[in-house]
Amino acid sequence: MTSNREKIVLIGNGMAGVGTIEQILKLGGNYDITVFGSEPYPNYNRIMLSYVLEGSKTVDDIILNDWNWYKENGITLHTGTAVTRIDGESRKVIAENGLTADYDKVIIATGSNSFILPIPGSGKEGVVGFRDIADCETMLQAAKEYNKAAVIGGGLLGLEAAKGLVNLGMDVTVVHLMEDLMERQLDHTAASMLKAELERQGVKFAMGKQTVELTGEERVSGLRFSDGTELEAQFVVMAVGIKPNVEVAKASGIEVNRGIVVDDYLQTSLENVYSVGECAEHRGACYGLVAPLFEQGNVLAKHLCGAETKPYEGSVVSTKLKISGVDVFSAGEFIDTPEHTVIAAKDDWKRTYKKILLKDNMIVGAVLFGDVTESANLQKLVKQDAEMTDDIYADVMGTGCCGGGGAKKTASVESMSDDEIVCGCNGVTKKAIVDAIQDNGFTTVDEIKACTGATRSCGGCKPVVEQILQYVLGDGFEQSAKTGICSCTTLSRDEIVAEIRAKGLTTTKEVMNVLGWKQEEGCSKCRPAVNYYLGMIYPDTHEDEKESRFVNERMSANIQKDGTFTVVPRMYGGVTTPEDLKRIADVSIKYDVKVVKVTGGQRLDLIGVKKEDVPKVWEELDMPSGYAYAKSLRTVKTCVGSQFCRFGTQDSMGVGAMLERKYERLDFPAKFKMAVNGCPRNCAESCTKDIGIVGNDGGWEVFIGGNGGIKPRIADSFCKVKTDEELVEICSAVMQYYRETGNYLERTSEWVERLGLDQIKSAILDNEEERKALAQRIDFALTQVKDPWKKMLNDDPTRNALFEKAEIR
């Protein structure tokens, strides 16, 4: 069936190459496609690696095209398979394992590698780059074993690596040769503001330092600088730059300079072989930013599909980034010289900065820090060499913190060119978004996201997507742009819950049918949400729908990338017994557990359990599940407390264990963590927990809404209580109020900010009757929960279906 179709082989399974394939598919290109990727994953978003490093996202969360996407589009995917060369005479691509693939066209999209400084000691153990998931895993492991780290390089990757390691608890110093961070994207003022913000977040800096040697024996122990000073470090991340990965091209006799040399249609020197992305060199330039890579892919896709296209003439480089929660942008020229006219505004209180550079009154560059609302407009003006006018000045500089009003935003979007990329993570142009709205009648960002991919990664382009919606829909925008919980419905969380109660709906299928879901079966976003709402409303009668849960929850265990599982037994308050430890050790040995790890939540992970062994491991452990996979209470972290600590004023271990026993197994909108400190020294880190409890001489102080993830948030002081009984009532009321008002997957940190601390206090602290009612409702819900493994072990059909027959991806 496929013999008449031309064969395309893509070497490299990254964003640039797969983005090109996506465009070919959208254009209706009739090709038989084979993809080789050296990593053991489908296509993922490399931009989001820092989120994986700091623990707020998993590898699955950053996958752009999952395994099913390749199957659905008839694409043959070889993961974990590196290509060594292309044989132009026989038209074959040859992999290192001997696998070959015939081709009519080849696209080389091998990306780039980390540049490792050629200095003494660079090959020591503990020295890594930061380019892929394997690097993330190495860094995560290092953070568990070592304390001091150094990151060489003050560019984007270096700063992301540094902040990720700080969040993992390491003492991190960024070593940078220049006096300014990100000197290729930011001017001195913006770089100084960025440095100050990162210092507030715990990152240290050694600026103007040239590393000449990495010291230590087999493992690195420090850095030596050209001025003779040294810095202690047990782990070093090299983030000094990237170099195009040209090995395949070299081995195939293709012309290579710094990168793989291509013409204006991305053709290499070998007939029918093309190259896009960081590995390609066009007119002497190699691009390391996402937008140019997608621009290349769009030209190549149209060329291969015979569609009309302008040649690729290079990209006007602009940079729009979010670094540790801080937005920065630059385009064109950003370092002012005497020949520039400078327009600048700096707000130290709001920590924002805006600068525009003119030459002969033409806009030639811009820098933004903190507020990047005007980035799309400024990028267009720089690209056009627009002349500065009073209107443009008023439009861009504005009068408020965001620079102007709503009408200006629509005009800005209207003037964007059709081929301008709105979503840099996924290469989605303005025209693609406009077409999606007009062709499909879309009225929400979620619908656009599902269709085009815009906003599905970092979300930084969401404001521009909303502006495009407003521009296309005009006066109908306000009425039609109401966003539901997903693209399947326009109903909000509160509307769905109200309808379930009013109409007595009892299953997800019933909800979706009665409430008019656009997709009859729903999607992976709304099914688990509706299932949770039903369980929250009807704790005694709702039959949990396993098929509506995420895969880890269905399996009641965490699935690892190699297909094995992590089993996490409960340890109440982080306390265990010698008998339980011996049982864990015996079971781990018997079932060849790969790693037994102490977690940050004070319990033990048994990592690497074979799928078929998981039920037997639970059966022989005979311990409660730690719910490490669930949207429920994960852990109650405790310090030693008054039982043993000379500073302890309260029994933190006893109270922590009591709370964990009381609230375990109950579903919440998102994962839920607690901590109990026996004194204000905060050894159990209560300040970053959903509920943090701190003991003092007079009783307990309760904090809520803390988070240590991608958006770190210090918990708010909620109230003080004198007795354990009062403490339990307050915790119960807060938890149940969160269960009843929180959006699905919304952490308490976001919930507190959305509702406002005053509203939560009013509902709980100022209303004793409602507080007691909330506590009673959570107590009733708690009487309905059971350990999933006790139930599973006595349910042979379910056990066999999940652990003996099912293939997990």
UniProtKB/TrEMBL annotation:
Domain (NADH-rubredoxin oxidoreductase C-terminal) ranges: 318-384
One Gene Ontology term of the molecular function aspect: 2 iron, 2 sulfur cluster binding
Keyword Cytoplasm: no
Entry note: cofactor: Binds 1 siroheme per subunit.
Domain BFD-like [2Fe-2S]-binding: 421-470, 485-534
Cofactor(s) needed for function: FAD; [2Fe-2S] cluster; siroheme; [4Fe-4S] cluster
Residue span, Nitrite/sulphite reductase 4Fe-4S domain: 630-768
UniProt xrefs under Pfam families: Fer2_BFD, NIR_SIR, NIR_SIR_ferr, Pyr_redox_2, Rubredoxin_C
Residues annotated for siroheme binding in this entry: 683
Binding-site residues, [4Fe-4S] cluster: 639, 645, 679, 683
Ranges of residues in domain FAD/NAD(P)-binding: 7-281
Gene3D superfamilies associated with the record: 3.30.390.30, BFD-like [2Fe-2S]-binding domain (1.10.10.1100), FAD/NAD(P)-binding domain (3.50.50.60), Sulfite Reductase Hemoprotein, domain 1 (3.30.413.10), Sulfite Reductase Hemoprotein,Domain 2 (3.90.480.10)
GO biological process, one term: nitrate assimilation
Segments forming domain Nitrite/Sulfite reductase ferredoxin-like: 559-622
Record's keyword annotation contains Phosphoprotein: no
PANTHER family per the UniProt record, alphabetical: NITRITE REDUCTASE (NADH) LARGE SUBUNIT
Similarity comment: family membership: Belongs to the nitrite and sulfite reductase 4Fe-4S domain family.
UniProt-recorded name of the protein: NAD(P)/FAD-dependent oxidoreductase
UniProt organism field: Paenibacillus apii
